[in-house]
């Protein structure tokens, strides 16, 4: 099995790069469907909702189909493990996050049978609920869809 | 507090980008000290050791000083939480990883008092111990040093 | 040590079976004391409370005795690990549950010295807080009491 | 969305019931594809391998297709969370397991778009590595495939 | 490297001992800077805040400096892992705590380069939100600062 | 319910205090049964075994009775959560421990019905597998027995 499109790398780059840094990657970004957004919260539920809502609005997944909602949900949670690093909690553990998120849907593998996969990437800051008392955080989840 | 250098972004980009993609970022890479390496294993211990050994050889941390070893260790473990997403284990849970890692040391904050911080980033694949049965993974840890 | 009564199997079966499926198991259900109930919530605290309240009302444990409350509490939490599979949270991770629960108290082992044990089983659904966007979940905890 | 076939219940029942208890459930067992096996070990890797090998041999998933291997893997790990209840480890935490496992593949939802799902159930014992010093354990994982 | 001052032992003793038990340890308590307090809550956030506020008021860490806040935060969370033993949650898992906490700042190692470290210790009770239905709990975190 | 004997405090003190510091606490140590030992290892299994073996040899629990073995096992694991603070692993995460352990059995509560409870305390160091690159760690588990 060989990966022809690296959807995880695409999602992470899109979440991290500023607009002026995009240009050199535009060709690889065009090979997949993407959805971008931002969320700042002490509430994990709001972070998950923000991604789910953005994805459904963009049409990246089919809203009424649980199969796709299920795939997206577990991918978001996997990505949040990278952001929270050990305790899947933010407000409860007195932290706040400011994150950009990117969801990518595409066919990463050369074999047609491997079908579509989804990547969710977060990039931003995590820290005390006081502006500036924070450091960077990254998270990436990948799932078949 | 404002971040003047984003050591997490630098570490993650360096771990993800191919050489021909580097060029546009060279100026930001020059503002920090970095150490790069690769490791493929089913053994978490070997992954941690590979990073620690590379860092000590490169002189990025002072080998005899526990303070620095301690800062590095916790940063590696935080980064591995993103790679493993929920269970800090690879071989025990029948997975293998093939990872590039980057360690960055620098002063991310404008205020001099904030001093030096360290970032550890992983990028690569995680999956079944059969070539190709794998997907991408990313992890980032950040700590004061 | 040999198990003469499988309290975990009894609890799980009682939580999963519809009334018309009970009949063939009635003889084994009669060998133990049981307490049944239902709870639907996004709030883990309410799920734990629902079980504790039902158990105390039924007289299955002695209400004023911490020893018994302690045994029950840890058994509930163990069972919820199976329901939540990795993050002991529901609302915080944007999930809702609809569960039937069964608590069984009995003497599973042939040796008299092994005394009484308790089993808590959950069966039902977990998923997005939208009706139908959910799949099944099971959890079983066992403890000495 | 309504569940017409409860693959989780089927998998858990099949893992728990003795042959003479099967008869009353045969009609619901016939609506899905199943694979059964047994494994006893202090080694989590061997438990995961035992299930993967049995499933591939039975043809329940397509061996060369990573998509299906990936779905199965995460379902096994979810089920093991229920078995281990808090620490995804057995030998490392000085425990041994003796488990029956059942994998079920079928279409649980009435809507055709929901497609195929997979359930992995474990039932057996967990305890000290001394015969008899053990109690029951159950685990269930569910995933889209 | 040799530890000349055991800041973890000092913090734990101070959190556990009654005033009349202090006397024999006074000489070792004088070698470090300490801050003490109490907190009772079902809310993890309040427990973390109580420690952070007490430490900042006492001047044990420099309030405006994120580096020090970051070191303290991770040390508190490490100590809470010992208190909660497996699930970093209290109210969500229907528990309440009544804790004394002690924060110690000092130079535990003989080598000057090892610099300052911080220890956070908790001692008290954890249990059901009913007075007396509780048992003891201890937690200790250690970090470089 | 009121605690007349604090078995957790006794166990933690006994694990932490040097012989010359004991004297002032001897009266409270006499109210319970205790068992002490030492273990140094990168292997969690060996740490658990060391405690179990010492306890059985000392006669603090009845060896053939699973009920008592089960109570002890979960108490040890709870105490190790405090030692490892987030990942219940040592060698796998490239750490080694040098620990003193104390097991206390007694009746902490005034009410006779509360019966016997067990406390397991660890105190020592955790760190890199190089002498001196380590810091202190504490863990306490409590259970009814
Ligand atoms: Mg995966
Ligand atoms: Mg941090
Ligand atoms: Mg148990
Ligand atoms: Mg699911
Ligand atoms: Mg440490
Ligand atoms: Mg307890």
UniProtKB/TrEMBL annotation, chains A, B, C, D, E, F:
It holds the Pfam family HutP. The keyword Phosphoprotein does not apply. The keyword Transcription applies. Keywords: Activator, Histidine metabolism, RNA-binding, Transcription, Transcription regulation. InterPro entries: Regulatory_HutP, Regulatory_HutP_sf. Homohexamer. Antiterminator that binds to cis-acting regulatory sequences on the mRNA in the presence of histidine, thereby suppressing transcription termination and activating the hut operon for histidine utilization. NCBIfam families: PRK03065.1. Belongs to the HutP family. This is Hut operon positive regulatory protein. It comes from Oceanobacillus locisalsi. The gene is hutP.
């Amino acid at each position: 099995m060989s990966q022809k499109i690296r959807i995880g790398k695409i999602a992470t780059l899109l979440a991290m790069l500023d607009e002026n840094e995009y240009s050199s990657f535009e060709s690889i970004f065009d090979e997949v469907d993407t959805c971008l957004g931002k969320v700042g919260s002490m509430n994990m539920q709001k972070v998950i909702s923000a991604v789910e809502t953005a994805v459904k609005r963009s049409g990246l997944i089919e809203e009424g189909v649980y199969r796709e909602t299920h795939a997206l949900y577990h991918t978001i949670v996997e990505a949040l493990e990278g952001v929270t690093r050990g305790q899947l909690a933010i407000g409860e553990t007195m932290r706040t996050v400011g994150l950009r998120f990117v969801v990518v849907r595409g066919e990463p593998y050369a074999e047609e049978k491997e079908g579509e996969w989804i990547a969710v990437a977060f990039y931003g800051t995590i820290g005390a609920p006081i502006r500036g008392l924070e450091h960077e955080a990254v998270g990436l989840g990948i799932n078949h869809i």
